[in-house]
Specification:
This protein has one helix at residues 2-23; strands spanning 31-34, 38-40, 45-52, 60-69, 77-80, 87-92, 98-105, 116-124, 129-130, 135-139, 147-151, 166-171, 176-181, 187-190, 197-199, 206-209, 265-268, 283-290, 293-300, 307-311, 319-323, 328-330, 341-351, 356-367, 374-379, 410-411, 418-419, 423-428, 434-441, 454-461. The protein is mainly beta. The longest helix is centred in the N-terminal third of the chain and has 22 residues, at 2-23.
Length: 464
């Protein structure tokens, strides 16, 4: 009798265990897809990425077929990895959620712009499946996209999405996103008529002016380290650049043509949460004019010999970017007519009841206002996203402020957390193209992934 009871108890326990297991929802399909269905490029090389819904546990093969139009592989273009029998063999490494390949034009080849390549995800290794954007057309010229759905890739490694290491630049007309490590640069030298230097707000940087002009005479005795702290209730707006993108309101004053007017600044190159780097890692900088460009003097705070770096202006870009750790220029923003929006973490501002103070936010969206990109918010009580058309543009007022979108598109605390579905945005790019854009997801609470927001956009009016 005792054996029967024990058996019944065991069956009941196993039944309960299995029932609990059955109640656990299975993971959604892991899908592989191109970032967009159409892409154009005018340079010598472009990268095409295939993104997965999530990281794979084991190395996963993907085969991509290619069909050139008015092109011959090896004659006018090549790929890396190389194609064989009109197919490119790729492998997503274990623990990763994307893979990419490059397409390059052959040197010395002249093209008329009508050439293109049709790529298709032909197969993927189990258990990954082929997703919606399984085909992509690459045009060998600039395009004006009719719109697409895209997921921005803010994650660089295994960091949490709320601290995504990438800032992501997005060009709507070409369907191109450019992720850039936020920690990769320190100073941006303005290429416009004015002589201005921006600090890296995406890295939580702050800058403090000293009273001295001799950089070798400045040490940690000339300032209080805590005075560089910004964020989490600390700091003044004068320590950071203007959040609306006003180039005349940078933390570093305009560079004067009179050398004696240009003070030495202390730069905390990485912060944002009341944190200030140790004195040994703080920099002192001084910027002078040199002809139509700049000369940067820089050193660690307690070093007594400074280094110099000349920076020339390039009108094709908003800024020339410098990494102090590398002592060299670095690539950050795409050319100024090749991006419209920047997503990611950045210094912004808030009010704790005593006035505006600097504050670091994740998931901010800024427009390329220095290249005349403008934005407008539309509430769905006035027009729905799907129904909005060119005729609805009458009466729309566009904003030139870089933070016209800012944090208005999402909720990160309280509830419900996720994308605000009662609004969408209009973006007018440098060529006059107007797109309507809405955010789909960005957080687990709205079926998204923090650090990888999804959005979609569609051309409303083509520029003249």
């Amino acid at each position: 009798m005792k054996k029967i009871v024990r058996s019944l108890l065991l069956v009941a326990f196993l039944g309960t265990f299995n029932a609990c297991s059955d109640d656990e929802p299975p993971l959604p399909d892991n899908l592989a897809a191109f970032e967009s269905t159409e892409k154009g490029f005018e340079g010598e090389e472009t990268e095409i990425k295939i993104a997965l819904s999530r990281a794979v546990d084991a190395a996963t093969p993907i085969s991509v077929s290619l069909t050139p139009a008015q092109l011959t592989y090896g004659m006018e273009f090549t790929t890396t990895p190389a194609a064989a029998n009109n197919a490119i063999a790729l492998t997503v490494p274990a623990g990763q959620s994307s893979v990419s390949f490059k397409v390059a034009k052959k040197a010395g080849v002249l093209l008329d712009g009508d050439e293109s390549i049709a790529f298709k995800i032909a197969s993927v290794g189990s258990p990954v499946l082929v997703g919606t954007n399984s085909a992509l057309k690459l045009s060998f010229k600039a395009i004006v996209s009719e719109g697409t759905s895209i997921q921005l890739n803010g994650i660089a490694d295994k960091e949490p999405g709320s601290s995504a290491a990438n800032a992501v630049f997005l060009d709507l007309s070409s369907n191109v996103q450019t992720p850039v490590l936020r920690n990769s640069w320190d100073l941006g030298f303005f290429n416009g008529e004015d002589f201005r230097v921006t600090i890296n707000g995406t890295n939580g940087a702050s800058a403090l002016a000293t009273t001295k002009t001799d950089i070798n005479a400045v040490s940690d005795k000339d300032f209080v380290s805590d005075s560089l702290a910004v964020g989490q209730g600390a700091g003044k707006l004068s320590l950071v650049d203007n959040a609306a993108g006003d180039i005349t309101k940078t933390a570093i004053a305009a560079v004067s043509a009179t050398d004696a007017d240009n003070k030495v600044y202390i730069l905390n190159r990485k912060g944002g949460s009341r944190d200030v780097l140790p004195a040994a890692d703080l920099y002192k900088i001084r910027v002078l004019r040199k002809g139509s460009g700049y000369t940067l003097q820089y050193a660690k705070v307690n070093e007594t010999t400074f280094k110099t770096l000349d920076v020339n202006k390039d009108a094709a870009f908003n800024f020339e970017f410098i990494s102090l750790e590398k002592g060299a220029t670095v690539n950050v923003e795409p050319a100024k007519d090749r991006w419209d929006l920047r997503w990611g973490y950045s210094m912004y501002f808030t009010n704790f009841g005593t006035g505006l103070i600097p504050y670091g936010f994740s998931d901010l969206v800024f427009t390329n206002n220095l290249a005349n990109v403008e934005a407008a918010e539309v509430l769905t009580t006035t027009a729905t996203y799907d129904a909005f058309a060119e005729t609805n543009l009458t009466g729309i007022t566009f904003s030139k402020a870089a933070d016209a979108i800012g944090s208005k598109w999402r909720v990160t605390s309280g509830g419900p957390i996720g994308v605000k579905t009662d609004r969408f945005y209009l973006i007018k790019d440098t060529a006059g193209n107007i797109y309507k854009l809405r955010f789909i997801s960005f957080h687990a609470d709205d079926s998204g992934e923090r650090g990888k927001p999804k959005l979609e956009y569609k051309l409303v009016k083509k520029g003249a």
